[in-house]
Amino acid sequence: MKLTCRQLRKIIKESLSEGMPGVDRQVRDLWHSDDRDFSAPPGEEDYYAPGGEGEQRTDAELEKGWGEWLDQRGLGFEDLDDLAQHAGAPNRTWLDSKPPQDGFIGPLDVEQWAEDRSIEIDLGASF
Fold first, then answer.
1. Which of 42, 65, 91, 107 lies 20 to 30 Å from 80 when distance is taken between CA atoms?
2. Among candidates 109, 104, 113, 105, which has minimal Cα distance to 70?
3. pLDDT tens, per residue, the chain with 127 residues
4. Are the C-beta atoms of 60 and 93 separated by less than 8 Å?
5. Which residues in the chain belong to E strands, given as ranges?
6. Rounded to two decimals, what is the model's pTM?
């Protein structure tokens, strides 16, 4: 039996409204179980996503390595997140600190991505 999100919400709402003992507390504990602080340490506020696993690069490192490459293709620094996601990474901090020499991140051709992204930006600006 498959449930849609809407059906699941309805079931949870009905369970909560019936006042089943312990359910309110269990749901509250489930929603508030992760109170960790992921803010950047003092002096490292430029770090994009502190506290996550796998992040290796700061924005300053990435901007230094990728800045000229992005400028030459008419792209902005924020486009690195899109590139990272196309390459299978969660965000730009997972990228190498400079563009790949061979033009590929895994199977992704970064030159083709840059061309497609530039067209996407141009089309978005024309509307």
1. 42
2. 113
3. 677 877 777 877 777 666 655 555 665 565 555 555 555 566 655 554 444 555 567 888 889 999 999 999 999 888 988 898 888 888 888 888 889 888 888 888 889 988 988 888 888 765 5
4. no
5. 104-105, 108-109
6. 0.52
